[in-house]
Write a structure and sequence with these properties.
- The chain is of the alpha/beta class.
- The chain has 2 domains: 359 residues, TIM Barrel (Alpha-Beta Barrel); 64 residues, no CATH class.
- The protein has an 11-stranded mixed sheet.
- β3, α5 and β4 form a beta-alpha-beta unit.
- α3 packs parallel to α4, α7 runs parallel beside α8 and α13 packs across α14.
- It is globular, with a radius of gyration of 24 Å.
- The relative contact order is 0.14.
- The chain binds iron/sulfur cluster.
- The site of iron/sulfur cluster has 15 residues, from α14 and α15.
Length: 476
């Protein structure tokens, strides 16, 4: 008779501790592996972050399509403004989209609360939307034109009893001269005339931190057209010291409401726009050292300012920094860096225990970074300020439609322009969820293909109440 050794079962508390301190949870590991498998071979570069470090960004759609501005161009479809703002609809849709994203893309990601003007939601509904997103592991960023008052921000951040709802808020604030409708400046003649508005938004968040202890992350977004492309350097120089942690530029595309298209957006070559961003940043911005999807869609440069000089986190000309980058992507990919500090420390500790060689490598990188940015004494007197530069090039609806139709049939186009569109869609870093069909789509597909029908249906479901006529007013 064989002795029965039994099977050792760890106590429940031990399993729970193991789960909590595991550097990357199983759902995220699976989501990363799937994203990597789906990427076209051409973008599986050494610096690729999709499928290795994260799954990419996410956004909401059809949750509050209305906007009170009239920008040229505007990515919203012609029917967006026929849909009324409706809190219960917004929250139900966000719940459904976020739970689908959590299920299909892992337990944490960055997600934009977007799809109209977010400040048209009441402060209560806006706060409830952010709470739902957080509950599903999403790090939300509210996307707004920034034309609201401090009282709105306060209502969002603090409840009716004066209790702080959030420790930190993230906003992407869109301010540029293609927009129309800002109070006090319905139409801006140039970017410089909007500088007071850039300062005003930043000042509101500083006040919120002062008065309620709410930290913030602010991104500054700009739509780029042939009329403002040469003003990019000035925008960056004027707003750089205001507290914006990211400057994101979106060259305009022929998508959304056709009545709002102006200029020839074909003129906006990626290199031209990026060189303007570099001019404003005052530095060369290496965007391949960490690549997000396809560089024809995205260029991103992560780094920090010390005084007037910007430094990339990784020096793309130093093989040791590139080795550190490789180690980061290989061993820290999928780690939830926004997790509570005590958990993050324990998780990083487990990574270090498993790979002790990472410690001298990280210290070497730190030493080199301190040295090339001016030395310890300088860094102690001039605090480094992290600032990320981004260019995100949406695609024309006329290209996305045929490209997507073929992709859905599993066919790659022979037309080079449509083939490029397909490759970019396959490497997309910005997904939107359709739980009703069990699909995820690139934001380009959402705006270029699906928005029109979706908003037409919403206009019937949530019509704008008609104004009462004079005769109705007087009771005839
Ligand atoms: S496919 Fe469109 S939405 Fe996706 S990353 Fe490229 S430009 Fe952005």
């Amino acid at each position: 008779m064989q002795p029965n050794h039994g099977t050792f079962t760890a106590p429940r508390w031990w399993r729970r501790l193991d789960e909590l301190t595991r550097p990357v949870d199983a759902k995220t590991t699976d989501a990363l592996a799937q994203r990597w498998r789906e990427l076209p071979e051409s973008v599986r570069t050494l610096g690729q972050v999709l499928g290795r470090f994260g799954v990419g960004c996410e956004g909401t759609h059809g949750v509050f399509p209305k906007c009170d501005f009239a920008c040229t161009p505007c990515y919203h479809s012609a029917d967006a403004n026929k849909v009324r703002i409706d809190g219960p609809h917004t929250l139900a849709q966000i719940e459904s989209q976020m739970s689908y994203l959590e299920q299909s893309r892992g337990s944490h990601a960055h997600a934009q609360l977007i799809g109209g003007e977010v400040s048209l939601l009441s402060g209560e509904d806006h706060a409830a939307a952010l709470e739902i997103m957080r509950r599903h592991g999403r790090e939300p960023m509210s996307f707004s034109h920034g034309d609201f008052d401090y009282e709105y921000l306060e209502e969002l951040a603090v409840d009716a009893n004066g209790k702080r709802r959030f420790k930190k808020l993230s906003f992407a604030v869109h301010i540029d001269s293609t927009m129309k409708g800002r109070r006090g400046m319905r139409r801006a003649l140039d970017e410089a005339s909007l500088d007071p508005y850039r300062r005003r938004v930043a000042a509101m968040f500083q006040r919120l931190r002062r008065e309620h202890g709410v930290k913030y992350f602010l991104a500054h977004n700009v739509t780029v057209t042939p009329s403002n492309v040469d003003q990019i350097p000035e925008v960056i120089r004027a707003a750089r010291g205001l507290g914006y942690g990211m400057f994101s530029f979106q060259p305009a595309a022929f998508v959304g409401d056709e009545r709002r298209w102006r200029d020839d957006y074909e003129n906006l070559e990626a290199d031209r726009v990026w060189s303007m961003i570099e001019l404003g940043a005052g530095a060369r911005l290496p965007y391949e050292v960490l690549q997000v999807g396809d560089t024809r869609c995205n260029r991103t440069a992560w780094g920090f300012y010390v005084g007037e000089r910007w430094f990339s986190f990784f020096n793309d000309e130093d093989p040791k920094d590139l080795a550190a980058r490789d180690a980061l992507l290989e061993h820290l990919g999928g780690v939830h860096f926004n997790a509570p500090a005590h958990l993050l420390v324990l998780r990083l500790g487990r990574v270090a225990l498993r790979r002790p060689s990472l410690i001298p490598m990280a210290l070497g990188w730190l030493q080199r970074t301190v040295r090339r940015s001016g030395g310890l004494v300088r860094l102690m007197s001039e605090r480094p300020v992290p600032v990320t530069f981004v260019m995100h090039r949406f695609m024309h609806a006329a290209d996305v439609k045929p490209a997507w139709e073929l992709l859905e049939r599993g066919v790659m186009s022979e037309d080079p322009r449509i083939l490029e569109t397909q490759e970019r869609l396959l490497a997309c870093s910005y997904a939107m969820a359709h739980p009703e069909t069990g699909t995820l789509v690139p934001a380009c597909v959402q705006h270029g293909v699906l928005d029109a029908d979706e908003n037409a249906a919403l206009a019937t479901l949530l019509p704008i109440p008609r104004r009462r006529t004079f005769s109705a007013e007087i009771g005839n």
